[in-house]
Amino acid sequence: MTNDDLVHRLRSLTVELDVFGAGFAARNGLHATDVRALIALLDRDRAGAVASPGWLAGHLGLNSASTTALIDRLESKGLVDRRRDDSDRRRVALHVTDAAQEMGWTFFGPLIDQVIAVADGFSDDELTTIRTFLDQVTAAVAGVRTR
Question: Is the pLDDT of residue 91 over 90?
Answer without folding.
Answer: no
